Amino acid sequence: MSSIFKDRVSHERIIEKYFSDPAKTIEMEPGDILLNQDELNERLFYVKSGKVGGFLPDKGLNEAVFEAGPGSFVGVYSYFSDDSKSYARVVAVEDSVINYFDDDPFDLPGDEVLGFMTYLFDIVVKELRHRQLYAGNMAHERQETLQKLIQSEKMATLGQVAAGLAHELNNSIGSMTSNLGQLQEKIGDYLDSHEEKEVVSLFRQGIEEGQKLSSADARKGRAELEKLDFVNKGTAKTLSRAGITKKALKSAVGSDPLKAQRIAEFWELGYLIHDMQIAANHATHVIQSVKSAGVQTKRWTKNADVNKTVEEALAILRSMTKDVLVKQMLSDTLPTTEACTGEIIQVWINLIKNAVESLINSDTENPEVTVKSRAASRNRVKVSVIDNGPGIPKDLYERVFQPNFTTKIRGMSFGLGLGLTIVQRIVDEHNGEIKLFSKPGQTKFDVYLPIITD
């Protein structure tokens, strides 16, 4: 037997001997057809360079059912089949150079037939394996595409329903916002003509600032105010939330100890109006977001204060978080950025709401939610929402962001409907990133937002 086939057939020497004839070389441009479907074929093609793809026009498939790049063989089926017909249309995908062998292998010299046929058998096996892998990958991609399409249709239907609800709610929210403004104005006019400036000043402070102090700082101030003999416990509690000091209160009250109660009552009234305005503004943002679902143009704000969006979210959730210790650790030097503030507030509302519900549903002892902010780098800010609940199993990390995904573990729900899906969408639209870390006793969502100043 010739040395070319001794022990093991050499791929390089087979190609050199049988697939390198310049007279049997085809140069192709993208779109050129190598074989038509059902075309008689008695050639075995070798792709020297470039890429060709096989399509099934009779099935209406415009996507390749196989691809062959450098070093691959084409026409294997028709070359070896009884009818010698190509089952696919083979088209150049890019500039390609094709060499072919069109002789009858049994006409080769006797000492070459066995080696060449062994090599051809290897070709058949490898091509079958390659096309099975390709078919499997294509099936997987088609399944992913189908799932995305189904999800897209679901979200489109949900968007239509939500847009209808938004339209119905819009008039109610507008009326509430307008009436709040009139209420604030009428109360302010009344106080200007009937109350002293200290009372009016605290009322306006409540409207403009709300409760600025943390619960811990308010408790310290309350203890000091309760030392005054003309301040009862309820009044001291309210005034401590307003941030008024013992010295400032004594100066404001003067010789009228009953003024302390009036100051507390009207500050609280201003504070309630402040929180109602925040809730109404956020509701307006939510409605605008729903109505513009699928539309690229949204109301973005330059120099958006991320800390302020966190504070507004907490104000909206105040009644829900009353049984949970909420800690704010917000950086005083956090850079501003360009963002859609209404949607960013939705992010914090959903994350904090999920954390609180997790703690309540799992009966966590000493439930606690911490919200932190800081500059993560020169280009990003980071906000973390952390709870001390039971944790989320690692195999559910990705699934909790899927629409309508819920699962019960130890009596509590993960996923909570569309909340985390909305969070993911908003963060993606801001070119941000969200990360989940969880273990028993701690769950943390880290949200990174890019710093955009131009």
3D architecture notes:
- With 454 residues, the protein is an alpha+beta fold.
- It has three domains: 3-103, Jelly Rolls; 150-296, no CATH class; 298-454, Histidine kinase-like ATPase, C-terminal domain (Heat Shock Protein 90, 2-Layer Sandwich).
- The protein is built from eleven helices and 17 strands.
- The chain has helices spanning 11-18, 76-80, 110-194, 197-209, 215-225, 233-242, 246-253, 259-291, 306-316, 341-361, 419-429, and strands at 25-28, 33-35, 44-49, 52-55, 66-68, 73-74, 89-92, 96-101, 301-304, 325-330, 337-339, 368-375, 380-387, 407-409, 412-414, 433-439, 442-450.
- Strands 10-12-13-17-16 form a five-stranded mixed beta sheet, with helices on one face. Strands 1-8-3-6 form a four-stranded antiparallel beta sheet. A four-stranded antiparallel beta sheet has the order 2-7-4-5.
- β16 and β17 form a beta hairpin.
- The radius of gyration is 36 Å and the shape is elongated.
- The relative contact order is 0.07.
- The model is unreliable at 1-7, 293-297 and 407-417 (pLDDT under 50).
